[in-house]
């Protein structure tokens, strides 16, 4: 144990040996302190000598500069669809900070043939028949009775009338009275007039044919009654079964006579369409009544019997039924056949493929864990499939995530439009909910698609550019009470809004300073004094801690 005298001597010798170090330290501290005092004194002198004209000039110059930046940002946004400041940040600053360039080349796993084929395609707003359209009498009309709203637009119903005339009539119908009645019935606008015409055709045919003998016009009359008069699915199924008996007989007779002339060929084509339509709607009735396996068998037999009638898109009905049975292996087999570059894509194809890939990883997916360890190969495939689906139809995720309310799907849809998104989500939302974690994975990843495509109106990543005519067609197809989803919806970037706010604020300050110079000068001095208050507080604390004699000693050193 050393004595206090020894400790004192050791301390003095240590300080004497390091006198240059401490001299330098105190000199630096003194320099900083004096510079702070000088800055504070200079600022106070500067504030006292400022005139109101200076504040007017300052705010006016700031307003002018921010206005010029706003004009440039707005011009750049109108031309390129993004903010210039954001573009520079993403292109130049993000790589320096270790980010990944979102505009990198497309996925190497994507086939070049598909990408090249899609880029060469020209997008057209062609309206398609909804493969999963509901029954007017048993479903659409019941919605109208309950809510008082019309779920179908006149444009949509007019397209259906054109389809019925194309599929269910031919040029020789005027030769038979009942066929002529049905030809007029499909053109009637009033539903009650169509139903009355169908009953009239049935009564006329019963007077010409003995009981249990059905004519071709009987088949189309039963179709109309099943679609529009039947108030339940069971009643519609009963009428479709009667139509099936008539349709099969007509199909067999016209099949034997189809090569005897163009008139018989047209009749056979019409009878084929009638038979396919009846069998397809019967399969949909079985699906709605819970006999899903029976519906799957009917759809498979129909696709095997008429493989060339791909325009009806029966495979989409089959996919939905297989998903209901949770038969994912058969779903994958159907996708492998129809998810081809030569066939037109659909939301059902793209999002079902994404659901199958998400199913393999969604139950264990965690955004926090993925950000720490990175995405595995299976997770990357699932995310890429979701990005592919969202790029094809960007309206679907909001309906699947229930960020937007669903309505009854229309009878016609627009590929890549809001109408197709409604039709898909209406029938497939339950399948996404059944797969644990699938909606969570979709929620975490779907917005990344928009970062991959900087400006979708002019560019595409996996498909041809998004068509700009979808909004007009969707507004015609969807009812007035539904808010149509628009994509890509130009939303002003943050920097444009910030610059506009800054420009307006500084212009207002310049105007107020010009009108009330003395008052604004007081406010400006108060603001600047408040801004420098922390520095003054620190200086006061330093002066209170250090004794006044120390300043004299430090200056001598």
TrEMBL record:
CDD domains, sorted: ST7
Subcellular location, record wording: Membrane
The name this protein goes by in its record: Suppression of tumorigenicity 7
Family the UniProt entry places it in: Belongs to the ST7 family.
Topology relative to the membrane: Multi-pass membrane protein
Organism: Sparus aurata
Main location group: membrane
Compositionally biased region (Polar residues): 113-122
TM stretches of this protein: 21-48, 54-77, 492-513
Keywords: Membrane, Transmembrane, Transmembrane helix
Classification via Pfam families: ST7 (PF04184)
Comp. bias intervals (Low complexity): 102-112
GO CC terms, sorted: membrane
């Amino acid at each position: 144990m050393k004595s206090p005298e020894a400790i004192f001597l050791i301390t003095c010798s240590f300080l004497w040996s390091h006198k240059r170090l401490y001299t330098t330290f105190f000199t630096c501290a003194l320099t900083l302190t004096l510079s702070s005092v000088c800055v504070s004194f200079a600022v106070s002198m500067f504030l006292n000598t400022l005139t109101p004209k200076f504040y007017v000039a300052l705010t006016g110059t700031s307003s002018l500069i921010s206005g010029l930046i706003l004009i440039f940002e707005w011009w750049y946004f109108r031309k390129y669809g993004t903010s210039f400041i954001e573009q520079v940040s993403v292109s130049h600053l993000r790589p320096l900070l270790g980010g990944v360039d979102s505009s990198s080349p497309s996925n190497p796993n994507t086939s070049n043939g598909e990408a090249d084929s899609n880029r060469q395609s020209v997008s057209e707003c062609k309206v398609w028949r909804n493969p999963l359209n509901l029954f007017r009498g048993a479903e659409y009309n019941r919605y109208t009775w309950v809510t008082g709203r019309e779920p179908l637009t006149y444009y949509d119903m007019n397209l259906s009338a054109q389809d019925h005339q194309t599929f269910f009539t031919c040029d020789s119908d005027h030769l038979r009275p009942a066929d002529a009645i049905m030809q007029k019935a499909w053109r009637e606008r009033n539903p009650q007039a169509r139903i009355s015409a169908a009953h009239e055709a049935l009564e006329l045919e019963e007077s010409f044919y003995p009981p249990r003998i059905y004519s071709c016009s009987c088949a189309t009359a039963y179709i109309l009654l099943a679609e529009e008069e039947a108030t339940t699915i069971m009643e519609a199924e009963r009428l479709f079964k009667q139509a099936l008996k008539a349709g099969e007989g007509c199909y067999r007779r016209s099949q034997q006579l189809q090569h005897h002339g163009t008139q018989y060929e047209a009749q056979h084509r019409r009878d084929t369409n009638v038979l396919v339509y009846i069998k397809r709607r019967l399969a949909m009735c079985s699906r709605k009544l819970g006999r899903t396996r029976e519906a799957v068998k009917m759809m498979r037999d129909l696709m095997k019997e008429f493989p060339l009638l791909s325009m009806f898109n029966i495979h989409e009905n089959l996919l939905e039924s297989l998903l209901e049975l949770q038969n994912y292996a058969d779903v994958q087999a159907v996708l492998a056949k129809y998810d081809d570059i030569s066939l037109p894509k659909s939301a059902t194809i793209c999002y079902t493929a994404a659901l199958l890939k998400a199913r393999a990883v969604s139950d264990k997916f965690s955004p926090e864990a993925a950000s720490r360890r990175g995405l595995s190969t299976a997770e990357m495939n699932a995310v890429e499939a979701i990005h592919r689906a969202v790029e094809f139809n960007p309206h679907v995720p909001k309906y699947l995530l229930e960020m937007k309310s669903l309505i009854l799907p229309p009878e016609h849809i627009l590929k890549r439009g809001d109408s197709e998104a409604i039709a898909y989500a209406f029938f497939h939302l339950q399948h996404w909910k059944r797969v644990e974690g699938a909606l969570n994975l979709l929620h975490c990843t779907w917005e990344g698609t928009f970062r991959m495509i900087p400006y979708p109106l002019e560019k595409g990543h996996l498909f041809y550019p998004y068509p700009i005519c979808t909004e007009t067609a969707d507004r015609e197809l969807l009812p007035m009470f539904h808010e149509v989803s628009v994509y890509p919806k130009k939303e002003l970037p943050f920097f444009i809004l910030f610059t506009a706010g800054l420009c307006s604020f500084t212009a207002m300050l310049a105007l107020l300073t010009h009108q009330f110079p003395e008052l604004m000068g007081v406010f400006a001095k108060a603001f600047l004094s408040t801004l420098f208050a922390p520095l003054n507080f620190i200086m006061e604390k330093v002066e209170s801690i250090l004794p006044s004699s120390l300043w004299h000693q430090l200056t001598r050193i």
